[in-house]
Amino acid sequence: MGEVKVGQRSVVLSPSPHLARRLHAQRVARYTMLLATTVSIIVTLGIVASLFPTAVRTIITIGSQIIGISWAPLFEPPEYGILPLFTGTIFIVVIAMLVAVPVGLGAAIFLSDYATFNLRRVVKPILEILAGIPTVVLGLFGLYVINPLYVEKYWPIGEPLAYSGLGAGLVTGILIVPIIASVADDALSAVPRAMREAAYALGATRREVAARVVFNAGLSGVVAALILAFARAFGETTIALMVAGSFPKFTANPGDPMMSLSAFIGFAGIGDAEVGSSAYNTIFLIGAILFLVTLIFNVVGNRIISKYREVYE
Amino acid sequence: MSQTISLKGRLSARRSFIDGTFRLFLYLSIFISLGMIFWIVSSLWSQAGWLLSWDLLTQYPSYDIDNAGFQSPLVGSLWVVGIATLVALPTGLLTALYLEEFAGKGNKFSRLIELNIQNLAGVPAVVFGLIGLAFIVRGFVKWGFTVGSAAAVIAMLMLPVIIIVSREAIRAVPPSYREGALALGATPWQAVWRLVLPSAIPGTATGSILAVSRAIGESAPLLLLGALSFVTFNPTGLDSPFTIMPLTIFKYASDSREEFQILASAGSLILMAVLFVLNLIAIILRDIATKKRNV
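The joint structure predicted for all components is written out below.
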């Protein structure tokens, strides 16, 4: 409705007749979107609110007993030494990383610097299928193939049983190979072409370009890939429960059965734990520990990723 | 006098040996990664391939090996993940649209949400089971061990993944689309709703299908929500008891009798087949999406 002078003439610009309705639609849409956006915050608050009150209450009741080597909160009298769960978790995660880091990084370097465009187009979706194998199927594979056919037969120390931390670590390794491969490949592929070309022009071989120049340039992204994979292995429940068993043994032998932090939640949470019971309290305590540790690793990992994005984009 | 300079210098023996070894290591890595899938599938197949039949799909879980099958867990998985998708997909899509198109880059609010979503995506799945146990099964909502509780938990698990993939798809839509629409007098919402969103659909669909297939295979959180029982009837509504494929497999696998272990492997084959089909659809959709963009 504003009057605008165009040369000598004055033109009246009137808004389209539906503008009010269109703006109203936009307002409604905006509020709906804002509402949807708050859902993710509510979920996070819900997690914190569900875990921490019970966890804090539990840790206060347990007190210094928590530093002990016997974990049996479901027995009478209960024992709350959490160290066996930590050693179990560390064994599984470290073994998984030992398997997955070389294989995953090898796959990432292959995809970013060695594979042809077409080969890449075939290999990436297959890796995605590997990433999509349900953990229960991997657990089955550990239970029926890795444990009986390999760990029980060839592990030299002690007398391996049907369950082993070693088997769980190996299978968790399979789980995180595609995570390392795809995040690290993204980082290496983001390294500018000019860097590769400069190195080739100086007479570097393909390996020198890939392993020295590109790898160093993309190192922060590679580190982020390892951190995210670590966090994933740390929180994995089903594989640990199926393959390492549900006996929290404080042991230095990876061929023994053991229990990880997350496996305990799965184990003790199955039987409809009553509110306020020892099982109920301890699964929330362990859940809070899992949440905090993975949160720290994820924050660091994602931070590194957004840093290298800034550098190259 | 002419001088010939050879640009084809020879690598020293040591350098070419290291190069060869490194190449071998890379090929080995990729071979191991891809070989794992075939190893896993073939070991399941050799154990249980002969057992596959339509009966497995129509019979209900049972301790009687001859009559044991996977109907109620299949239908249960479909219910749980179906409802979760119905909730998480629109919520996630709207969040992604808001963050990409309306929130404004770099302000505090959108940075906070972004950080929150990234970290939510990294929370171990089993922790979502705990919030379900505390607030949905009991607590405020009190739905008990039902399809509704399970769907709520799976929806929370899917939400960050869907937001992340949708944002990427929306970001890939060229800015000229919006600018063109705005120049013609469309409101920002009209530009987004009529142009940006339709162009982002193939990319969003690809990511969402992958999120759905991850949700179908998810077992840990529902372990805490009473899905680990033999339910010998199909769910009929949100308040039905339920079981799901992965946990029925888990249940069979924890039986020490060999027949049940074979049954667990057969269930895994069925589950993998479902996921394979979903993955294939996602890959085809992505091909369509990238081709469209390159035209």
